[in-house]
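Researcher: Go.
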Amino acid sequence: MRVLGIDCGSRITGYGVIDSDGVDCALVQCGAIRVPPTDSLASRLKSIHTGIAEVIRDFQPDAAAFENVFYASNVQTALKLGHVRGV
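Model: Structure:
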C-alpha cells in the first residue's frame, strides 16, 4: 500500500510518500510545498492545492494521512491550518 502523509502549513506544507506491506515501510519521496508568505491566503491555498495534486498524480497513493491541528498560537492560525487541511 502506498500512503501519502501531509503536514499542513499555510507557508510550508510538508509531505511524505511511503510504501508499506503492513510490517515494513520504505520511503518513496518526501518534500515540501513552499509558498510566499506575502501572497494572499487564497493564492497560497491554490498553490498548495496544485502542489498536492501534482504529488498525488506522480505517486498515486492508495491512502492519505493528515497531521491533526493539536496546537495553534491563536485562533487565526488554527483557522488557516483548517483551510489548508480542506485543500
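Model: The chain has two helices and four strands.
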